[in-house]
């Protein structure tokens, strides 16, 4: 179907240039084909051509309502595109389709056409937060009020009036400025009196008009009872838009339960309601009867139109009755999640889902979700093992059929729901055998990841421009098999580890983390907790993908920082009418002469002129605001196209970025190898230089030998010239020359042997050197020891020197005493000598006297 979008984008340009019948026919045919599309990927807003299509379609619808056939073809396309939530939100938020639809609603007057257009507007406004200052909003509210006024009291227009009121509820829900704008144009008491017969939607409007910021307990109880009573009457008419209000309320209770105190939360309040305890059986009976009727009609329709459905319809298609069934499954899902309904009721609810899956071949994604929630709640409430086992066996029986449905269609919701169901089942069966579950999981694994695992051309051959829906399928399947790997590592750990090594998987995980989907991001955070998760590679991918998204988020933050728009300071329409009547009465009084005072008349004329000027100024401002809104819509369309184109270019450039990264890594490896080769080359150069030096020595020796040979040759020639008889001698010399050559060769061999011997001697010398060094170290240790001993001896010598010095001092003293004594001895000896000489003289004299 994407070919029809491309054809439309081509034909619409020709139609804008010349709106001939031929161009109009081509455009209409393309739109009619697109209105029958059942493949979600056709209207994927992450694809550039789809964004161009919606911009061109908006421009076509903004050209006017002169060609209603073309406009209704466009409405049919919008109805088909609004079936998918992401596309529906983008039609309002990014492409601003409500202004042209409002203009179209102002132009048509047929009841059936009005009801069809109101149904589309109701679907688009559901969950949308609009600004009250946009020019089309007040016109839309006035038109809805006019339609409600026209249909009041007419039973055949009850559904049309209910649709209009539902749109007002969507506009004013949690939107205080919009509520002020509504109350400005109505009389609240009269308006509430007119809508009192409209059931659930009227109750919700009562609560909005009374308290827009919170709900009272009494209102919650009443709305709870009204909601489920309304379901029974709505099932017959298949008005899924009313059922969506029930779902909104139940989701509101679930959100309050998550954030409020358990003692005061709304969940406790809803549990007090007798409806859940006493009337749940009757409620389920009604749903089962409706489901059986839907299954019978679906089976008959599939039997009659089997061939047509096979050719024209994918199993992702949803009819209006299937829309109603989806909302019913969502209601039951909320009931199971909110209330401890008991294993019996949970079994009945699961049987409804299983029966729908077994019989209906389409629109069963919500049924799979309901089955999963029942299984999770059964495990949470700790039901009996037999009850849980029976429920698991029932789920096991439909897995093969669900796998066949997933294989044969491209429904994103069904594939993701099936993936989540597998994850829940493997957690419930963690303690038991999972052989059958593993077989189905293996088929699902091959179905989802076959394209990634079969990329023979490497990561660059993978299509990185995947749509967001396909990426979500990959990521939820990865989350599921991560749970399988945690609970059954023998079979799945290696497969999941192999997946996490693939570049495309890194890219898709990064897209999931940067997608803004909180549930998907939480699932990816669980995957990142695995042992071998490639954090660095995924971080690089996130950095590459989050550039323009960071700018977009900064703009969104700046826009959000401005705060909510305050309520408009305007008078109510009733008061404005009364003021206009008063001014008219004053003017009539002046004309009839009842007011004759000149100053009063002039003052009244002055205020009349001022009022006229203000009215004209307000009209000009509204016209200017309308033009600015149209220009803003155009700029937003251009911005949306540029953002999608940037995203597309980034995805297309991603293989080049990956290739550049791989080349950089290879370049770093080659640089390391080059440095290693340079160092090896330097060592080889040194060896070559050494070999050249040895070769020069050999050449020098060879030249000397050659010189000797030349001299001998000259001598031989001389002898040959002198005498031929010297030939023998010449031969001898020649033989000698040969011998010398051999000797030279032997000398070379000997030289080589000598070189080897020299090498051995060098090695021996090196070993001797090491041995001598070891001996030197030993001698050094001995010397160190002897040095220490010498130091000790020196210390002893110092002590002895000190002692010797003392002894020398004593010796000097003794020598001095000896010297004194020697002098005394010498003196005594002299005296003795003198006495001897005297004695000798006396003896000689005596001898002479004797003679």
The coarse overall form would be elongated
Span from first to last CA?
187 Å
Helix share, percent? over 70%
How many strands in all? 0
How large is the share of residues in beta strands? Answer: under 5%
Rg, nearest Å: 54 Å
Number of helices: 33
Describe the structure.
Residues 296-321, 547-568 are annotated as: Disordered. It comes from Culex pipiens (House mosquito). This is (northern house mosquito) hypothetical protein. Keywords: Coiled coil. Residues 730-838 form a coiled coil. Helix content is 82%, strand content 0%. It is elongated and about 215 Å long. By secondary structure, it is mainly α. Among the domains are: 223-304 and 317-430, no CATH class; 433-561, no CATH class; 574-718, no CATH class; 726-850, no CATH class. The longest helix has 125 residues, at 598-722.
Set down the secondary structure blueprint.
Elements: H1 2-17, H2 21-35, H3 48-61, H4 68-81, H5 85-93, H6 98-107, H7 111-125, H8 135-151, H9 158-172, H10 176-184, H11 188-194, H12 200-210, H13 217-237, H14 240-259, H15 266-272, H16 274-278, H17 280-304, H18 306-312, H19 320-338, H20 343-359, H21 365-380, H22 385-408, H23 412-428, H24 435-453, H25 468-487, H26 489-499, H27 503-513, H28 518-527, H29 535-545, H30 547-561, H31 573-592, H32 598-722, H33 727-850
Helix pairs in contact: 1-2, 1-3, 2-4, 3-32, 6-7, 6-8, 7-9, 8-9, 9-12, 12-13, 13-14, 13-17, 14-15, 14-19, 17-20, 19-21, 20-21, 20-22, 21-22, 21-23, 22-23, 22-24, 23-25, 24-25, 25-26, 25-27, 25-28, 27-29, 32-33
Protein name: (northern house mosquito) hypothetical protein
Region (Disordered): 296-321, 547-568
Keywords: Coiled coil
